Amino acid sequence: MRIAIKEWRLLLRNPHGLAVLFLMPAIFVLVMSFTLKNTLIAKIELPATGWVLEDTGTVAAQWVREWIARQGGQRFSSREELQAALKARRVDAGVVVRAPLLGPDGRPRSEQLEMWLGNLVQPAAAARLRAELSFSLLQVQMKMAAAQAGPFASVLLGSAGSGDLLSSQAAPPVRYLYEIESGRPMTAVQQSVPAWLIFGMFFVVIPIAGVLIQERNDGTLVRLATLQVPMQAVLGGKLVAFMLLNWVQLAFMLLVGRWVVPALGGDALNLGVSVPWFMLMVVATSAAAVGLALLIAAHTATFDHAAALGGGLNVVLAAIAGVMVPRMLMPPGLQKISEWSPMGWALDGMQSVFLGNPTAAHVLPRAALLLGFSALCLVLSWWGMNRREN
């Protein structure tokens, strides 16, 4: 019993360990509970949808007008405008009504619709939109059949088979924005690898904590201070060294996605990305990851504390950012929060690179936020290490 009491006293003297033991799991439970809130809800809202009407016929125009009045939506004058709106996330999905919507038999055809999806649209919402489009076209067919039947519409519709009055409706074809921009099919690997690249890069906290705390304990930092080596030079050297380590780690993970995954039966990661934008995001993400790791290492006393705190914090940040569960499955409020986390900035930038044609408007703001976050972490690390040494 006395040994058990001793262990409890030791635990009470370890606030970092208690925080990891109680606070981190509690935060993780809260985040994951809200993240998965929408996955089991029976009622799925339709995504914000843009429309391009290429058929000038009255049937198509009336159908689109009635849909927007009933379900909501936004009209665009061209495919290019709809694509730009999807890229800017002003809409989550798009429908292009090609000409002619009506077939030779005078009935609407679902194959004349193109359903475009943003790269982050919720799958259940996309599935509902696809089903609603098919059902809506079926209703148009029924109205047209009833109009042709005249006063005997109810009798004919009640007695005739569906093949007599209604043509079969297949679901409209679906294309993701990534497929439209790159001409390549969307795969689970292409969607998930950027998220796990970022998650792995932020785990650089463990080797950094080991090195920095060992140098503090064996007097290396004191000797460097005696030699009048400024602390900012020490931090700068560590930043460069561990950023290079991050890049080696990144190259290894890309090789796994490109060759190991297809060798095991999965889809290969497509590396046909814009190299300048990719390198900018790699540098910015790596700087943020190393900066956060230095901040944690500078303000913890032992390697165990740093590893536990860093690992737990990374898991929580990953859950918030959309690494654990895709952001498309999160409720709107949590999606907004995830956009203001360092991993969220990195994820947005990396997905712009891997899932389409990145532009300065999409990549530069995220890279700037990551570099600013890194600078803030370095300043706080410098302050913490100076205070500890003094």
Walkthrough of the structure:
The chain is mostly helical and 390 residues long. It has two domains: 15-37 and 187-389, no CATH class; 49-182, abc type-2 transporter like domain (abc type-2 transporter like fold), CATH 3.40.1710. Helices cover 67% and strands 5% of the residues. The protein has 17 helices and five strands. Strands 2-1-3-4-5 form a five-stranded mixed beta sheet, with helices on both faces. Helix 3 (58-71) links the parallel strand 1 and strand 2 (74-76). The protein is elongated, with a radius of gyration of 28 Å.
- The unreliable regions are 153-168
This entry's quaternary arrangement is single chain
How are the strands of the largest sheet arranged?
A: 2-1-3-4-5
Our count of helices gives 17
Give the DSSP E fraction (strand runs of 2 or more residues).
5-15%
Shape estimate: elongated
Mind describing the biggest β-sheet?
Answer: 5 strands, mixed
Number of domains: 2
Concise description?
With 390 residues, the chain is mainly alpha-helical.
Characteristics of this structure?
mainly alpha, abc type-2 transporter like fold, 5-stranded mixed sheet, about 5% strand, 5 strands, elongated
Compile the SSE list and pairings.
Layout (H helix, E strand, L loop, with lengths): L1 H11 L2 H21 L13 E5 L4 H14 L2 E3 L2 H9 L5 E5 L15 E5 L5 H27 L3 H7 L2 H4 L8 E3 H6 L5 H15 L2 H13 L2 H7 L4 H33 L11 H24 L4 H19 L10 H7 L3 H13 L5 H30 L1
Parallel strand pairs: 1-2, 1-3, 4-5
Antiparallel strand pairs: 3-4
